[in-house]
Amino acid sequence: MRTLVFIALVLFTVVAAGVTSRATRQAKPRFNQELFARHSSHPKSTATGANPHESVVVEHFFSTQVDHFDLQNTEQWTLRYFSNTELYRDGGPIFIFLGGFRPIVPSMIGDTTLIYEMAREVNGAIFAFESRFYGISQVTGDLSTENLSLLNADQILADLAEFVTHIRREFIEDENARVLVAGSEWGGGLAAWFRIRYPHLGNAAWSSSGYMNAMVNFADFSEAWGDTMINHGSQECYSEIFVAFHVMQNLIDMGRADVLFDKFNICHEIDADNEFQVQYFFYTLMGSIELFTIARKNLADFTEVCDAITGADSDTAVDSFANWFNNRWLDDDECLVSDPDVSVERFQDTDWESDFNALGARQALYQECTEFGWFFTTDSPFQPFGDRVGVDFFIELCSRIFGEWITLETITQGVDRSNNRFGGINPGASLTHFTNGDADPWRKIGITRNITQDITAVIIPDQLGSSDLPAISEDDPIELQTIKRKLKNTILGYLFPDAPVAPANV
């Protein structure tokens, strides 16, 4: 790690360069709503998510209660789901993949997935289930804060319970069909929670990189990300980022925010006296590199980032980081929105057609502010992003967007309630299998150890999140192929626990 003396020298070099202050840039603004939606496609990716057999995946709609817990409210709404039943034979099981925080897409249950492989081996029917308020599963006329009171894990799980009953009775006409519920990330958390709340409807669960443990201050995320950067990028790269962020903090403290405006393609000059704006600036820079490196679930992206940062012919660490940010994260005609008031205004839009809402950013942030937390702070000293992003930033963000009724106390109560209901890192979800990549920062809120003989976990070496979702491929590392095969046998064994041998064709 570079010394503080060297940081001071770098700071002097940056300040000595001198710039002309400007208030705003005339460029296409880019909002970092992906940071709040907790998912994104890779910023430079052209992948469509399609697969060769997408035609066998059929879109359907299912009606259920608007509010499952108010007997006086008989209103209904219609959620979307997909089916893939080309493999199904009478007596086969049901496989349900949960969309979680994101809209469902046909490729979630296409023939390039491991869940499809499982269905093929036991003649199962596969479904993708879209959470209420995400994608086009629109419960209410808009996304007002009042309407979002109907968005929580309990309501989604109750939707799923009604859906399972519908699929058994009406779709495949087998009320005794066994059901596997699966999902990735927050969908993985929902899968395990369904086993806890409705064990009579879900016979087994597979939680891939599942978000299980709610917490207000998720400082461990950036610390774990830093470990992955060192192990799969380089120590030099980690140190360069460390120096850059500490120099930027010093510039802000010295009243030289104009230097950062000149070096970074941000839309608005930073008001150093506005603590909320300073926190937002550092959060967006931190989140940009974190998101870039983990969005495609490919550890090679850490190497790509490091090559760009450490290989740049730049005078200072700040210049190196700014070069990566301006050329790899942003397009040529973009500037990053750095004024939180502008972003707050966008997040306050309640129209379903808003790009924020189509992505699920407002909805996901609401659930984080009321149920889960998972706020990425810089409160750990063992991460490279300085110390300017605290829990108070997220409290203010939540209250500005959804109302002053959101406070640290209400967020803490929501987090405690979630863990009390679902068990946190000690869930009672029998016949459930958890997987996590050992390089995935999200593993810090997942289940990474066996709890009982039928609540099991596997850590996948040298992988980010959800590397177990695709079908087994010769392109997989040998160890990953082996883990996927064992995973299939474990999950199918949970689905058919009374079978004297593994299910047919396994």
Concise account of the structure shown:
The chain has helices spanning 4-17, 34-37, 114-122, 153-171, 186-197, 220-232, 235-253, 257-263, 275-294, 300-310, 317-329, 340-347, 355-359, 361-372, 391-402, 408-422, 478-495; strands at residues 28-30, 58-65, 76-84, 94-98, 125-129, 179-184, 204-208, 215-217, 334-336, 373-375, 432-437, 455-460. The chain is an alpha/beta fold and 506 residues long.
Description of the structure:
- By secondary structure, this protein is an alpha/beta fold.
- The chain contains 17 helices and 12 strands.
- An 8-stranded mixed beta sheet has the order 2-3-5-4-6-7-11-12, with helices on both faces.
- Strand 6, helix 5 and strand 7 form a beta-alpha-beta unit.
- Helix 4 (153-171) crosses helix 5 and helix 14 (361-372) crosses helix 16 (408-422).
- It is globular and about 70 Å long.
- The termini are far apart.
**Termini gap:** 51 Å
Q: Could you say which overall geometry the principal axes of the C-alpha atoms support?
A: globular
What's the CATH topology label of the largest domain? Rossmann fold
The side-by-side strand order for the widest beta sheet comes to 2-3-5-4-6-7-11-12
Average pLDDT metric:
89
- Report helical residue fraction: 40-55%
Low-confidence stretches: 1-22, 39-55, 500-506
Query: What's the CATH first level of the largest domain?
Result: Alpha Beta
Q: What number of structural domains do the residues give?
A: 2
Strand percentage lies at 5-15%
Structural class assignment: alpha/beta
* Extended strand count: 12
CA gyration radius, whole angstroms: 23 Å
The CATH architecture term of the largest domain is 3-Layer(aba) Sandwich
Largest sheet: 8 strands, mixed
Relevant CATH superfamily of the largest domain: Alpha/Beta hydrolase fold, catalytic domain
Tally the helices: what do you get? 17
Instruction: Write the H/E string, N to C.
Output: HEHEEEHEHEHEEHHHHHHEHHHEHHEEH
